[in-house]
Design brief:
CATH architecture of the largest domain: Alpha-Beta Barrel
Structural class: alpha+beta
Enzyme class: hydrolase
CATH superfamily of the largest domain: Glycosidases
Strand order of the largest sheet: 1-8-9-10-11-19-16-15-13
Number of helices: 16
Family: Belongs to the glycosyl hydrolase 31 family.
EC number: 3.2.1.20
Shape: globular
Radius of gyration: 26 Å
Distance between the termini: 41 Å
Number of domains: 3
GO molecular function: alpha-1,4-glucosidase activity; carbohydrate binding
Protein name: Alpha-glucosidase
C-alpha cells in the first residue's frame, strides 16, 4: 500500500523550461510511402506516420517542442510493507533536441539527432519499424549511459479517450489524468476518508487513486489506437494536456532502450486481440471453477459444517478455499497465516484425507501460497513461531539480499518475512518442488498465489539484474513459476491459481486474477465500486479472467470509524460477482467483525456475524452465477482464443455511445448481458442507461428501447441486469437463466 508523494515535483518530472527543438533538415514538406498503406508525412511543424486506408495516425510528433527529453535523476526509495515513497533529485537535464537526419527505407524510418542542455548531451536514435499495415514497433536509444530518465511525447487530441494501463480502481478513463505504472500495494482507502488519512498516519499505507497491484504500460484509445511499452521500470503517464501525451520511464538504460508497439484497429476488440496475441492469453477454467468457491477457515470441523450448511441451502458449492491450510497466525492486523508452505496438521489433522473427503462430495479444495517465508516477530516477546523452510532457504542462499549482502528482512502487516529470489534458478526449482509436493501432492486443486509486488527497490538479486527494473517483472515470474509447477505435475487445465500482482505478460502465465484487498465498504476508491473499475479496466490490458473477494477484505476497527462488513454490503457484492467468471468469498482479515455468508458458533460459544436469511439470500445469488455457467464458459473460451475479457468495459461493447461511458459502474458480461449493480448503501431501485437496441429486464421481463434511462426495482437477490434482444447469445442466456428466474 502506498502514499505517493505527488510533490515529486512536476518541475522535475516534466521539465520544459528553455526546451526547444532544432531541425537541421531542409525546410521542405514531403511524404514517403513506408509500406502499401503506411505513409510518412513530414512538414515544418510535425512528423506523422499514418495508415491511409484506415485514415488513422500511428503517431504524430510535434516539432514545436522536443518530443524527446532525457534526465539524470537520483532516486531515494522509502519502502514499507510493499508501499513506496520516492524522492528525486535532478542532476542533469537534456531538454533541447536537434534533428540531424531522417533515413527513409521500405518498412522503416530512422531519426537521429542530439539532446543537449547545461552539462548534458547525448546522441539519440528513434527507429520505427513496420510489422504489418496495422502494427509498428519503435525503439529509442541514447548514447549517454548516465541519462537514466527518458521522456517521450507524442500527439493526442481533446476528443481522444484513454482506457487501460492495467488494473485501475478509481478511474476507468484516463484522459486528463497523470497515472503512474508501478506494481505495489493498492493502499488502504486510496483517497476514501477518513481511512486513508488514518492509514497514512499510522503506516504511510493509504495509497492514492493510481496505486495498484497490477499496472501495465498499455492502453487503447477511442481512436482505435493501442500503445504498449515493453520497458519494466517505473513509468509516469501524463494525459493532462488534451493535445499530447507524455510518457517518462525510469532506469531505461538498464534495458538499453525504450521500446514499444503501436497498433491501429477497427474496434477496441481488434486492438485487445492484437495486444494479447503478443503478450499472452488465459487458459480455459476447469469445469469445477464455475460453482461457488466458499472461502472459509478455522479447521476441519468448522469448514465441514459450513460447506454442509451452504449445500443444504441450495448453494451450488464446488470449491472450498481454505487459506489457513498452512496454519493461522493472529496479529494486530487480524487473522493471518503462517507463511510456511505445508499443511498445518493442528487445524487440519490428516489434511490429505480431509481433501479427499471434500472431493468425494464434489468439492475441490484450494489453498494459499506467496513468495515470502514468515519469520519470528522480534517485537513479540512470546512469539513461538518457527519456520523450517525459512531456515533451509537461508542456509542455501535462496533469499533476496539487501545492499549489505544480507538476507533482506521485510516488514509486512503483522510480522516480518523474507522474499524468495526468483532470479536464482536453484531457488525457483525449490519453490516449484514445494508447490508440487506440499500442495498439488496433497490434492489441492488450486490456490491464491498472493503478493508479488513486494520486491524492495534497493534489493540485490542473484542474477545481477537491477531491482529497479525487475520489481515490475517479479509478479510475472511468480505467476510463471506457479504455472510451470502445475505443468510439471501434469495438472495443466485441472488446477487454478489466482494472482493479484501483475505486469506485462502476466496474462501469459496466470490462470486467473483477483482484484486484491478492497475495503469492506462502499468507498469509490477502495470499496465495492472500485472493484468494478478493477474488473473493467484490467480486461482492456489483457487480464481477461478476473474477479474480486465477495464482501471485500480489509476490515478496520478504529475509534473514529469502524470499517466492518454489513449484511447489505456482502450481498450487494455477491450480486456483482454473480456476473463475473468466478464467484468466491473471503472472510476478511477480521472474520468475527464481518458479516459472513454463513452462521457458525464456536465450541466456546463465540458466534460469527450472519443469519439464516443471509445464507438463503447468498445461495439464491450464487444460483444466478451458476445458472449462467454455459454463457460464462462460452466467454472464457472466447477469451482463451482472442484475449477479449469476460467482463467488458462499456467502451469495448458500445464505443460510440458517449452517454454510456458516463455510467462507469455499469458493465457487460460478454456483449449481450448488461449489468447495473447497486453500489451505494440503502438503494432499492436503480437508474440504468440502456445503449442502442432493445433490452429486456432479467427479472420482470419488461422490454425497453435503447438510448434511454430507465428505473428498475433492485431488491437484494435480483440485481439489475438486461438481456440484449437479438444478440447472438440471447438464446444461450435465456436458456441458462430460465430455471432460476422462474424459481427464485
Amino acid at each position: 500500500m502506498v502514499f505517493r508523494l505527488f510533490f515529486l515535483s512536476l518541475s522535475l518530472f516534466f521539465l520544459e523550461c528553455a526546451s526547444r527543438v532544432v531541425s537541421n533538415l531542409p525546410a521542405t514538406e514531403e511524404s514517403f510511402l513506408v509500406s502499401k498503406q503506411i505513409q510518412w508525412i513530414q512538414s515544418a511543424n510535425e512528423f506523422t506516420l499514418r495508415n491511409e486506408s484506415l485514415g488513422k495516425d500511428f503517431i504524430k510528433l510535434s516539432l514545436n517542442e522536443p518530443f524527446l527529453q532525457a534526465f539524470t535523476k537520483e532516486t531515494i526509495s522509502k519502502y514499507r510493507m510493499a508501499s513506496f515513497k520516492f524522492k528525486e533529485t535532478l542532476k542533469n537535464s537534456c531538454t533541447e533536441q536537434s534533428i540531424d537526419e531522417i533515413k527513409k527505407e521500405n518498412g522503416r524510418i530512422t531519426i537521429k539527432g542530439k539532446l543537449s542542455g547545461k552539462d548534458c548531451s547525448s546522441d539519440y536514435q528513434l527507429l520505427i519499424q513496420t510489422k504489418s499495415e496495422t502494427e509498428i514497433e519503435f525503439k529509442i536509444t541514447l548514447s549517454n549511459p548516465e541519462l537514466n530518465r527518458i521522456q517521450f511525447q507524442y500527439g493526442s487530441h481533446p476528443e481522444e479517450k484513454i482506457f487501460g494501463l492495467g488494473e485501475q480502481f478509481t478511474y476507468d478513463e484516463l484522459k486528463g489524468k497523470t497515472p503512474f505504472v508501478f506494481a505495489e500495494e493498492q493502499g488502504i482507502g486510496r483517497g476514501d476518508q477518513p481511512i486513508t488519512a488514518g492509514a497514512n498516519l499510522v503506516a504511510d499505507a493509504g495509497g492514492n487513486v493510481y496505486t495498484t497491484y497490477a499496472p501495465i504500460p498499455h492502453y487503447i484509445t477511442s481512436d482505435n489506437r493501442s500503445v504498449f511499452f515493453e520497458n519494466s521500470g517505473y513509468a509516469n503517464f501524463d494525459f493532462s494536456d488534451s493535445k499530447k501525451t507524455k510518457v517518462e520511464f525510469w532506469d531505461f538504460q538498464s534495458e538499453k532502450s525504450l521500446t514499444g508497439t503501436i497498433w491501429l484497429g477497427t474496434s477496441a476488440k481488434s486492438l485487445i486481440e492484437a495486444y494479447t496475441k503478443k503478450t499472452g492469453r488465459f487458459p480455459k477454467l476447469p469445469d469445477w471453477a464455475y460453482g461457488t468457491l466458499l472461502g472459509v477457515q478455522g479447521g476441519t470441523e468448522k469448514v465441514s459444517t459450513i460447506i454442509k450448511q451452504a449445500k443444504d441451502a441450495g448453494n451450488p458449492v464446488t470449491g472450498l478455499w481454505i487459506q489457513d491450510w498452512c496454519g493461522r497466525r493472529v496479529t494486530n492486523f487480524g487473522d493471518q497465516l503462517k507463511w510456511r508452505w505445508y499443511a498445518d496438521e493442528t487445524l487440519y489433522p490428516d489434511f490429505k484425507k480431509f481433501v479427499k473427503s471434500m472431493n468425494d462430495q464434489n468439492v475441490q479444495v484450494l489453498g494459499y501460497v506467496n513468495p515470502f517465508l514468515g519469520a519470528t516477530d522480534p517485537k513479540k516477546v512470546d512469539d513461538d513461531f518457527t519456520n523450517p523452510l525459512l531456515t533451509e532457504a537461508k542456509t542455501k542462499g535462496y533469499l533476496v539480499k539487501n545492499q549489505n549482502g544480507e538476507d533482506y528482512l521485510i516488514q509486512n502487516v503483522g510480522f516480518p518475512a523474507y522474499l524468495i529470489d526468483l532470479t536464482n534458478p536453484t531457488a525457483v526449482r525449490w519453490i516449484k518442488d514445494l508447490i508440487k509436493k506440499n500442495m498439488i501432492g496433497v490434492g489441492l486443486s488450486g490456490w491464491m498465489a498472493d503478493f508479488g509486488e513486494g520486491l524492495p527497490y534497493d534489493a540485490k538479486l542473484a542474477s545481477g539484474v537491477d531491482a529497479k527494473i525487475y520489481h515490475n517483472r517479479y509478479p510475472v515470474d511468480w505467476a510463471r513459476i506457479n504455472r510451470e509447477a502445475i505443468k510439471e505435475a501434469g495438472m495443466e487445465g485441472k488446477v487454478v491459481f489466482f494472482t493479484r500482482a501483475g505486469y506485462s505478460y502476466s496474462n501469459t502465465y496466470s490462470t486467473l486474477f483477483w482484484a486484491g484487498d478492497q475495503m469492506v465498504s462502499y468507498g469509490i476508491n477502495d470499496g465495492l465500486p472500485s472493484s468494478i473499475i478493477g474488473l473493467t479496466s484490467s480486461g482492456i490490458s489483457g487480464y481477461a479472467l478476473n474477479h474480486s473477494d465477495i464482501g471485500g477484505y480489509t476490515t478496520i476497527s478504529n475509534p473514529l470509524r469502524n470499517y466492518h462488513r454489513s449484511k447489505e454490503l456482502l450481498l450487494r457484492w455477491a450480486e456483482v460477482s454473480a456476473f463475473t467468471p468466478v464467484f468466491r468469498t473471503h472472510e476478511g482479515n477480521r472474520p468475527l467483525k464481518n458479516w459472513q455468508a454463513y452462521t457458525y458458533t464456536k465450541p466456546d460459544g463465540t458466534k460469527s456475524l450472519g443469519d439464516e436469511d443471509t445464507v438463503a439470500l447468498f445461495a439464491k445469488i450464487a444460483r444466478i452465477h451458476f445458472a449462467l455457467k454455459p454463457y460464462i464458459q462460452s466467454l472464457v473460451e472466447e477469451a482463451s482464443l482472442t484475449g477479449i475479457p469476460v467482463v467488458r468495459h462499456n467502451a469495448i461493447v458500445e464505443p460510440e455511445d458517449k452517454n454510456l461511458l458516463k455510467y462507469k459502474y455499469q458493465f457487460f458480461l460478454g456483449d449481450d448481458l448488461l449489468v447495473a449493480p447497486i453500489v451505494e448503501s440503502g438503494e432499492i431501485v436503480q437508474n440504468v442507461y440502456l445503449p442502442r437496441g432493445r433490452w429486456q429486464h432479467l427479472w420482470t421481463g419488461t422490454t425497453y428501447d435503447g438510448y434511454r434511462k430507465v428505473q428498475v426495482p433492485a431488491p437484494i437477490g435480483k440485481p439489475p441486469a438486461f438481456i440484449r434482444i437479438g444478440g447472438k447469445s440471447e438464446a444461450l442466456i435465456r436458456s441458462s437463466i430460465s430455471s432460476i428466474r422462474n424459481k427464485d
